[in-house]
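User: Teach me something about this protein's shape.
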Amino acid sequence: MAGLMTEKFLETPPETPEPQSEPTSGQDQHPEVYLHEACGTATQMPKHIRRNYLADPYFYNEDTICAKCGVVTDTACRWVDTGENLHDYMRRLQKAKSGAYHIVRWCLPLVIGMFITLFGAYLKANKGEAVTPEVLCAAFVFGVAIAWYPSKFIRLFLCKVDFI
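Assistant: First, the predicted structure itself:
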């Protein structure tokens, strides 16, 4: 997994400049290199991962990759350019998302789950089998569970096309 997420890394920790007083905007102005404070290794975030989390800061979990140690929590790293903790930076990006984003974030798996439920009920009814409330509830839970992971890719697409 580390090989997939660490395309390029710096072998020695670079000098850390003073943190900037105000964050800048625009994708090119966001930091790219972070330092894992436990081992002192600087890791450059791959561009495709950077584009994804800038579009949808909830797309990834709270872990990141250290080029030396592998998977580490984002609380153990800070940006080289700004000195800001990665965890705090991601929370700031998450807080900046709109209400419409959060409605889509939480409702999309439910809507997909509902369609899976209706499709399953339709197939069951076509076979002449009874569609009970218990079956519908089980199908809905199953549908939401199936939809939860793929819905984040739909959400990422909607973010990248500036729909949400």
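Now, about its shape. The first helix runs from residue 2 to 5. The radius of gyration is 21 Å. If you'd like, I can walk through any region in more detail.
User: That's plenty for now, thanks!
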